[in-house]
Write a structure and sequence with these properties.
Number of domains of chain A: 2
Largest sheet of chain A: none
Helix content of chain B: over 70%
Number of strands of chain B: 2
Radius of gyration of chain A: 32 Å
Oligomer: heterodimer
Radius of gyration of chain B: 22 Å
Order of helices and strands of chain A: HHHHHHHHHH
Number of helices of chain A: 10
Number of strands of chain A: 0
Number of domains of chain B: 1
């Protein structure tokens, strides 16, 4: 019984390994295929000669002509897909309700309340700010978190690999030469230190840009603008400073640590204050946040501090992307 | 009704995870503090979700409630919605996430450089938060925002392990995922233009009006097609699944487990919510989207397994098997009945428990064979790491659908659901063929692992599995047998949840 079981097991095992029937006493040399990276296929075993030659001839043919044919088919198919999707979307747009029509489905009670009661319900003169930072503040929190996620990911992928090499740490992902895979070339952007015109213009314009950015952020609840647009303006001042004076100078006051601390703190303030507001709102509790009078600088409840938080995150993230992609560090 | 504590649980779970993610970069790196924080927070949320599930189902009828995010009621502000189905999915997502993290604690430490581990934890927290938000949200635009967070974090946890393969895989994944995001965005814009709402119930009402008056049918069809295609790309339905094997096969074990078990499921559940809550099953049937989903599901079941047969790398094999399993879920969704959707949800849960176990087991076995991932190199590794071997064997039996294992329960419920439908022959045939194909690649893997290999076994110098590995694997195995043997109460609960979705 035991012998029979063993024989069945062996035949099953042989079938799995593809050895085929063989004499009982023959010893098959253990020949595990080399553990190649998965991009390379291990060499096939052929049971018959003509099969092998056919397969070899086929693979040779693929090796010579395959890429060419593939690229033709691939580009043809991608053009076809794009044309189909674009024409479909254009046909759809032609069918949509006409733009700006009074009877459009989008002109309903939702919009009406935002426009008619937005001011006194949120305390913000700028209806858009009231909409994105009070009525639908959860979405905006998500959007800020998207920026945070993206910045942290880029920082991890571009920033950390360079420092790894400096630490000279032997992680399992190094080549046989002991070198890291992500070899870093020279910086993409070469910075010329003697650009007097750029420096002069930057010296004049950076304070103005910073002022402009602060105004747009702080007046976000009163006039068009807000955290996202103001933060983008602030980041241009940082990028201009980095180009005119060099990344080292910016690095002195705005480096990776500053960026992480400022973004995390800003997002944390957003999460905690808005979390309090959500909690009180959902449980019908009294909220201690005053709305203020419409039009004052201190009005709109949480909108002003939230705008400042979003502005900090956006400014840091945009500058961070620029610095990481051009210098590989920040 | 529902007590105050349970009422706040959906909001508290999302915000706790977001705050944990935000605070993690500021923590000191000593003693693996960030990882412990993630594990504790996810564990607490699992307990809270279990309590929420208990409160929602204990009274005999299935309750559900809406949670306004802020002082403004729903069509004006954002809203969360929780019912039994959402609660059970949140519970399963948290448990699977926790076990994927603790089970791969040591392999994470090996694969990821120390200065990246902190950010890995940030990404894991954000990923869990986005999954919970996708589960609970009642607003289509909130869903889109969290799909974005999910996409970026998922691509980044592929690239967290350094190496050329992971960077290439992450780039492929990113490009495909962004195409999906773009399609979803366009579809949401079109739907807003047609309905004037973003809240799911109000959109449903407006769409019913559009369908009864037969107006704007063509943009409605296009938007449904775009949103389904976009989410299908993200959830790796077969013709769009080319990114999956690279991304899941090359990343570190914890990432593979999380991506395969959970990230796909968040998008699939979003599709289910859009079908059920936004369009309604009749409209889906009218616009023929159920047939498309059904056929693609069938194709995925067969083709995923066929591709898995060709693999020589154990992780890529398991990754292709995920494509087949996603096909099962879409088969259930494509049946377009309550029973079909309930079976699909059961398969979501079953797969979320088995696939992380298989990846954890495969990681343990290839670690035992000296970081080799080829199937041949794993010969005899069962005798080195028996916990991992058990995980692989039980997971494989479960995937084949042997009675008593979890996969059998969901396959059975899929079959039962398809009996009410005219396409029963097709789905039964596809289930049968796919099960045989599953066996064709999982049985050899099990045999290879169980075969004694004296020569190679001498060279195995892997350390014994750690305690956290053993405990996680034990819980995985227990969950698997629980789901396989006692699935009927769970299926009834899911059906009740689907009815109040």
């Amino acid at each position: 019984m035991n012998e029979e079981l063993k024989a069945i097991w062996r035949s099953l095992f042989d079938w799995v390994m593809g050895n085929g029937p063989r004499p009982e006493n023959e010893v098959i040399p253990p020949e595990p295929p080399p553990d190649l990276p998965f991009t390379l296929k291990p060499k096939d075993k052929y049971s018959r000669f003509h099969e092998a030659t056919l397969k070899e001839r086929y693979s040779q043919w693929v090796e010579i002509h395959g890429l060419h044919i593939f690229s033709i088919v691939y580009s043809g198919l991608s053009v076809l897909t794009c044309v189909v999707v674009v024409s479909l979307l254009l046909a759809t747009v032609a069918e949509l309700p006409p733009f700006g029509d009074e009877k459009n489905p989008a002109n309903n009670e939702v919009i009406r309340r935002y426009v008619e009661h937005g001011g006194h319900e949120t305390g913000a003169q700028n209806i858009v700010a009231g909409l994105i930072l009070d009525y639908r503040a959860f979405d905006t929190f998500g959007e800020s978190a998207v920026l945070f996620t993206a910045a942290v990911s880029v920082l991890m992928i571009l920033g950390a690999s360079r420092r790894n090499k400096q630490d000279n740490e032997l992680s399992p992902n190094v080549n046989e030469d002991g070198k890291n895979f992500l070899q870093r070339g020279p910086p993409i952007k070469t910075f010329r230190k003697d650009d007097a015109i750029l420096r002069g213009v930057a010296t004049l314009s950076i304070p103005v840009i910073l002022m402009m950015g602060c105004v747009v952020v702080i007046n976000g609840h009163l006039s068009p603008g807000g955290g996202f647009s103001g933060g983008a303006i602030l980041s241009t001042a940082l990028i201009l400073a980095a180009n005119a004076y060099g990344f080292e100078r910016v690095h002195d006051f705005f480096n990776e640590r500053t960026f992480i601390v400022s973004s995390s703190t800003a997002l944390m303030i957003y999460a905690l204050s808005k979390g309090y507001s959500f909690f009180t709102g959902a449980n019908h509790l009294h909220s201690i946040i005053p709305k203020g009078t419409i039009g004052n600088i201190l009005s709109g409840g949480l909108i002003l501090p939230l705008n400042i938080c979003v502005g900090l995150i956006v400014a840091g993230t945009l500058y961070g992307f620029y610095a990481l992609f051009s210098e590989g560090d920040m | 009704m529902i007590n105050m504590f349970a009422y706040n649980i959906p909001f508290v779970s999302i915000f706790m995870l977001m705050i944990a993610a935000i605070i993690t970069p500021l923590l000191p790196k000593r003693n693996r503090l960030p990882e412990k924080l993630s594990c504790y927070v996810i564990g607490i949320i699992a307990i809270l979700s279990a309590y929420l599930l208990y409160v929602l189902t204990s009274s005999g009828q299935s309750l559900s409630f809406n949670f306004p995010m802020g002082h403004f009621p729903a069509p004006w502000g954002n809203e969360l919605r929780a019912g039994p189905l959402e609660a059970v999915l949140a519970l399963v997502f948290c448990i699977a996430m926790l076990l994927s993290l603790t089970g791969n604690f040591s392999s994470t430490a090996e694969d990821i450089a120390p200065n990246r581990r902190q950010i890995f934890c940030v990404l894991v927290n954000l990923l869990t938060a986005s999954l919970l938000a996708l589960t609970y949200t009642n607003d289509l635009f909130t869903a889109y925002v969290f799909i974005e967070i999910n996409t970026i974090a998922a691509c980044a946890i592929v690239a967290v392990k350094e190496g050329p393969e992971t960077v290439r895989a992450a780039l492929r994944y990113l490009v495909m995922s962004l195409v999906g995001s773009g399609l979803v965005m366009i579809a949401i814009c079109l739907l807003y233009d047609l309905t004037g709402h973003l809240l799911m119930q109000n959109m449903h009402g407006a769409i019913q009006v559009l369908v009864t008056t037969k107006s704007y049918m063509m943009p409605l069809t296009v938007s449904l097609a775009l949103i389904t295609a976009g989410l299908a790309i993200k959830s790796a339905l077969y013709p769009f699944a080319s990114w999956l094997p690279d991304a899941h096969g090359s990343s570190t074990n914890a990432s593979s487990a999380i991506l395969s078990g959970l990230v796909l499921k968040g998008h699939i559940f979003t599709i289910i919510k859009i079908f059920y809550r936004v369009f309604g099953l009749e409209v889906i049937h009218l616009l023929r989207m159920d047939t498309v989903i059904f056929i693609l599901g069938l194709l995925a079941m067969i083709m995923g397994s066929v591709h898995a047969l060709k693999q020589t790398n154990v992780k890529r094999m398991i990754a292709w098997s995920s494509v087949a399993q996603v096909g099962y879920i879409f088969l259930g969704v494509g049946l377009n009945t309550t029973a079909g959707v309930a079976a699909a949800c059961l398969h979501i849960i079953v797969h979320a428990c088995i696939k992380p176990m298989l990846f954890t087991a495969a990681g343990g076995l290839s670690n035992a064979a000296g970081h080799k991932k080829g199937l041949h190199a794993l010969m005899g590794t069962f005798y080195v790491n028996r916990w991992a071997g058990m995980g692989l064997i039980v997971g494989a039996f479960s995937m084949m659908g042997i009675p008593g294992f979890a996969g059998f329960a969901s396959k059975l419920s899929l079959m039962m659901a398809s009996f009410d439908h005219s396409v029963v022959v097709w789905s039964l045939a596809a289930l049968a063929i796919s099960s045989v194909l599953n066996a064709l690649y999982y049985v050899p893997a099990v045999i290879v692992v169980l075969t004694h290999n004296k020569d190679a076994q001498k060279n195995f110098t892997a350390p014994a599995p750690t305690r956290s590995y053993k405990i996680s694997m034990f819980i995985f195995l227990a969950l698997n047998f629980y789901l396989g043997l006692f699935c009927m109460p769970l299926l009834r609960l899911i059906t009740r949840g689907v009815n109040v979705l």
